[in-house]
Amino acid sequence: MLRYFFRRVIALVPVVFIVSVFSFALLYMAPSDPITMKYAKRGEMPPAEVIAQEKAALGLDKGFVQQYSNWLTKALRGDWGSSYDTNQPVAEIMKSKLPNTVLLTFSAVLIMLVFAYPLGILAAVYRNRWIDYAIRLFSFWGTAMPTFWLGLLLMYWMGVRLRLLPVMGSGDFKHLILPATSLAIWLIALYCRRIRSGIVAEINKDYVTGLKARGYSNTRIYLRHIIPNASISILVMLGLSIGDLLGGSMVVEVIFGWQGIGSVALEAVAYRDYVVLQAYVVWMAIIYTFVNLAADMLVCLINPKVRLTEKAV
What we know:
This protein has helices at 2-28, 34-42, 48-57, 64-76, 90-125, 130-144, 147-161, 173-203, 206-213, 218-248, 250-256, 261-270, 274-302, 304-312. By secondary structure, it is mainly alpha-helical. Helix 12 (261-270) packs antiparallel against helix 13 (274-302). The longest helix has 36 residues, at 90-125. The radius of gyration is 24 Å and the shape is globular.
């Protein structure tokens, strides 16, 4: 088990390195530069000599290889640089904003688990009946609905018309409900269909027939055998979803004014804040890969077949 873990961790190192190289190259080839964008944000336009001096002071006049080498050397020492726009250390920006994104992500996942499993189980147990058709219709609707459009609908009805929840901000628990719900509805629609198909596949297997012949109740068969076996593939899919949410919920964060790392990244794109963008991409790559590693490790612990395969290797 430990050998499997260390082998996977070592394999992640070149992945993160390649992501950092490609992201840095794309930022290097961007048509504008952060110094010009900084002055444009202020409504100023200094002489070209001033812009050239500031670019030279930040090392932006160097070639790609030298810029990347300087950045990588500092990053390996824990120095991610300072924002070109606000002069705030990037590490402090990440430290202050990342917890909000993590909270939003896991709140959405928790809501999904609470609703997706009962809906998926109901659809599987009563398959090809009206309740199954209704859940499948909701699944198709939910996966087709963009999260930002759903967020705007929630803002209008729950915030503007009914005035039950705050529309924007990240002050307390009430501000979390709408953005987490807008992300969770898409997840519920996606996972209830996947849970249904997994349970239906397990129901048709021979071991279920054998358990029924031995007199096991349907409740025990579902809780002890069918649902755990169907959940193995769900865990892998869940790791991918968490990684996607951690890196891809920026639109929802901006709509609801949720002060997470996604909103910081979007602002960095607007002002060509390369240092913040590079740190965002690399950190999201690290988090994404380690979340998926954790999901794989959990599957390895739950599924004996995976453990036996790793021992054979």
